[in-house]
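Figure 3 (text version): structure tokens given as input.
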């Protein structure tokens, strides 16, 4: 008894049976209903998504003798002949083996004659991109003015290899990879019709391995069914498909996120023992991390991730307990080292190295959060309890310096800087930027209450106006430190005369010999010599890296500055990962 493979047995015979590709089915059916089917169609997409299947269904629908226009009847003579592959008016040509000009000449000769039995002659050329240039040229003339009794249907996995002159004469249909849910439902139906029960985990594995291709999935099911008989267990599926269960991938990711190298290596051992291709494991692990990042930054990850509900729930749970920055950094790190592993002659060693690097990567804490903690420490108040308790001193932290938020921040606690060496008088606002990190922290004089009175006492309106725009003002060690979010707001004050006047006024008012110092987000008020662009960005980064606050935060929390991100999107604590990628490319 001959066994008919599933791919043959389950091939869709009409539009209703097509798995996925709803958008294309609808367009084709509309064209049929309105009798506006173009005489040349080209179906493109990855293998096993139904290109030639759709072409054959179209052929049936065009030549059907009794069916309703948008759907072939599958029971008339024409439909039956097409299904059996015996229709004299349907020519199926494999472009890979009949690629020369001679074949196309013969074809052209053939289509000069009217169809024998049906309304139309249908020419299906599979893998049309394989035709030679001469063959394409010969075909082109026919496509320019196709005879009204002929329809051409082309299929290709490599649309970019088809000459534009041909493409411009065809209506194009791009088939998508079939979604996991549709594949799972389709495979489950097939298993049921074969009288086979499959464990859900086994079904999920087939769907994952199919990668959006119905045909690939079907041939895997064939293997499984003949190996397992009537019961397909997850363990059998893992063995036959050379895969590991989704739980191993999720477990590896969890171990890496928890900096647990031993657990991650154990999972790798499981993978190696199961005989799973390491390259596939790497791909699945990367895909898992990508999904984690998407879960962390997207409000509706289900839209972006084509995954079963239970996997999605697990991803969201994991993503919720890590910062988006941590996930993103780990993802890029693994991406780098695992890509190399995939091509290495000792992939296992390379994966192990990648894991070691990954567990050594430190958690990322945005500097705004660190500053919040710093505020609490300096104010002597207990730290607010974070959702996930973060060890303050046990672990090294990676600090991301961010641009200061645009909205006015509350006045920072005043921190006493180490007594600075005598500063040259000319550029007072430059001096502050390259201070060494302060060692001791103590309170300065709180002038918040006096500040409005001081502004009132200033008679010159432009000085008063510029002073009122300061985000904060602090007195410490004989310095009046004025913080601005925007350098433009204090530029008036830096003009020599105004500066001298302001210094005198402040010294009089606060009864102390003072030096005025500006604290700005931009590169310390330097006129931009090159006029901005990359240079300005570099300066801003430099200024941020040397910002005493950042250095202090890093020192207090025993961390290091790993990354500086500037730009509007980083003023919010969580930015989209894609944007972050752009940003780091720029750097
Ligand atoms: Zn029919």
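Below: residues designed for each position.
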């Amino acid at each position: 008894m001959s066994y008919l493979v599933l791919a043959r047995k389950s091939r869709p015979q009409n539009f209703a049976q097509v798995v996925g590709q709803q958008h294309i089915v609808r367009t084709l059916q509309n064209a049929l209903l309105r009798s506006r089917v173009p005489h040349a169609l080209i179906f493109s997409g990855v293998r096993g998504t139904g290109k030639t299947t759709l072409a054959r269904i179209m052929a049936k629908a065009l030549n059907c003798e009794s069916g309703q226009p948008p759907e072939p009847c599958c029971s008339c003579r024409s439909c039956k002949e097409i299904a059996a592959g015996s229709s004299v008016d349907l020519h199926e040509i494999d472009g890979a083996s009949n690629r020369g000009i001679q074949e196309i000449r013969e074809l052209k000769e053939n289509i000069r004659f009217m169809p024998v039995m049906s309304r139309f002659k249908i020419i299906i050329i599979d893998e049309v991109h394989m035709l030679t240039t001469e063959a394409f040229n010969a075909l082109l003339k026919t496509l320019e003015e196709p005879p009204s009794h002929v329809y051409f249907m082309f299929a290709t996995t490599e649309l970019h290899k088809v000459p534009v002159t041909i493409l411009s004469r065809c209506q194009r249909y791009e088939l998508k990879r079939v979604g996991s849910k549709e594949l799972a439902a389709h495979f489950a139906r097939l298993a049921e019709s074969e009288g086979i029960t499959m464990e859900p985990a086994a079904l999920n594995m087939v769907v994952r391995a199919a990668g959006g291709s119905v045909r690939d999935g079907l041939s895997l099911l064939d293997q499984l069914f003949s190996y397992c008989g009537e019961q397909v267990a997850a363990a059998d599926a893992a063995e036959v498909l050379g895969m590991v269960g989704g739980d191993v991938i999720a477990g590896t990711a969890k171990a890496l996120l928890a900096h647990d190298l031993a657990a991650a290596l154990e999972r790798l051992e499981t993978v190696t023992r199961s005989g799973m291709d390491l390259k596939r494991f790497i791909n699945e692990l990367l895909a898992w991390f990508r999904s984690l990042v998407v879960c962390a930054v997207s409000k509706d990850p289900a839209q972006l991730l084509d995954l079963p509900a239970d996997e999605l729930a697990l991803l969201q749970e994991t993503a919720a307990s890590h910062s988006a920055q941590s996930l993103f950094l780990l993802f890029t790190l693994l991406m780098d080292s695992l890509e190399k592993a995939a091509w290495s002659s000792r992939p296992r060693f390379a994966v192990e190295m990648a894991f070691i690097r990954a567990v050594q990567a430190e958690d990322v804490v945005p500097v705004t959060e660190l500053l919040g903690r710093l505020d609490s420490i300096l104010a002597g108040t207990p730290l607010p309890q974070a959702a996930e308790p973060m060890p303050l001193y046990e672990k090294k932290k990676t600090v991301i310096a961010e641009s200061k938020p645009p909205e006015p921040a509350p006045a920072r606690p005043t921190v006493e800087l180490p007594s600075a060496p005598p500063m040259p008088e000319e550029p007072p606002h430059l001096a502050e930027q390259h201070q060494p990190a302060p060692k001791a922290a103590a309170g300065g004089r709180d002038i918040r209450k006096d500040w409005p009175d001081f502004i009132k006492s200033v008679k010159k309106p432009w000085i008063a106006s510029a002073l009122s725009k300061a985000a904060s003002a602090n007195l410490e060690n004989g310095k009046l430190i004025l913080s601005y979010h925007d350098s433009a707001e204090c530029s008036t004050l830096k003009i020599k005369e105004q500066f001298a006047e302001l210094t005198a006024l402040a010294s009089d008012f606060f009864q102390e010999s003072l030096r005025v110092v500006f604290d700005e987000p931009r590169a310390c008020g330097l006129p931009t010599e090159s006029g901005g662009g990359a240079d300005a960005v570099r300066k801003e980064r430099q200024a941020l890296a040397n910002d005493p606050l950042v250095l202090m935060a890093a020192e207090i929390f025993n961390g290091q500055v790993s990354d500086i991100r500037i730009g509007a999107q980083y003023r919010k604590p969580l930015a989209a990962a894609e944007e972050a990628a752009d940003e780091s490319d720029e750097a």
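Confidence is low (pLDDT under 50) at residues 386-399, 401-443, 523-532, 571-587.
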